[in-house]
């Protein structure tokens, strides 16, 4: 296996909470309503995010976290 192929497979096998911010943002896609969802997640109050494994729940939370961490 070529080095870059093993690196990609290794990256894809990791959960996004263990990937550094730059790599996370580089490898994640933006969805059509993502900015609206991130804005709603960042507003006050409790949130319940549901969905099957791998649908992007943690990814949305991490994108919200990174977006508003930069504004502090």
Provide a compact summary of the structure.
The protein is mostly helical. It is built from 4 helices and no strands.
Description of the structure:
α3 packs across α4. The chain has 72 residues and is an all-alpha fold. Helix content is 56%, strand content 0%. The mean pLDDT is 79.
What is the helix/strand order?
A: HHHH
Structural class, judged by helices and strands? mainly alpha
How many domains? 1
Q: What portion of the residues fall into strands of 2 or more residues?
A: under 5%
SS field, number of helical segments: 4
State the share of residues found in helices, binned by percent: 55-70%
Quaternary class: single chain
How many strands appear in the DSSP assignment? 0
Mean pLDDT: 79
Please mark out the parts with pLDDT under 50 across 5 or more consecutive residues, or reply none. Answer: none
Q: What is the molecular shape?
A: globular
Strand count, sense and barrel status of the largest sheet are: none
Question: Ends: how far apart?
Answer: 43 Å
Indicate the radius of gyration in whole angstroms: 14 Å
